[in-house]
Amino acid sequence: MELEQRVAELERRLTALERRDPESPRLGDGDFWALEGLKQQLADAGGAGADGGVLYTGSVRLPTGEQYGWQYGAFTEALFDGDWADAAESFAALGHPVRLRLLREILGGLRTAAELAALDGAGTTGQIYHHLRQLTGAGWLHAAGRGRYEVPPARVVPLLVVLTAARP
Predict the structure, then answer these.
(1) By residue range, what is the domain housing residue 91?
(2) Is there a single domain that holds both residue 63 and residue 130?
């Protein structure tokens, strides 16, 4: 291969790499492999899927080594028929920077109120317990006994989905 051809090939490959978003995985066939799979599922559902639907899914390994996989789908009609106000408490619980930090730290392995209270800027023990109660009441945490807290397995991927959706 001549130098000119090699440079042209390197430029082509560099351009392709620069176009890729390094934050999003490239899995399956094509850029919209998950969307195409959802469309097929909706078509197979017949009339129930006529107005479309949404799907979220994830397979994650936490810094602790714990692994979680989850998926959930809903038909558009069912989402519009439901009372969106029912989600307000869940969203409100996530609407405080300290609570988001506590969730991140809990997913990272700090599980007790004492460990969380030792974090710089997290607040007093009383404030920590207030935030933990808010997160527990909304279902983002549950008490695992002896002052330990954890994100329920069925909430790990949904939490990460919400964080992903909130990115600018």
Answers:
(1) 84-165
(2) no
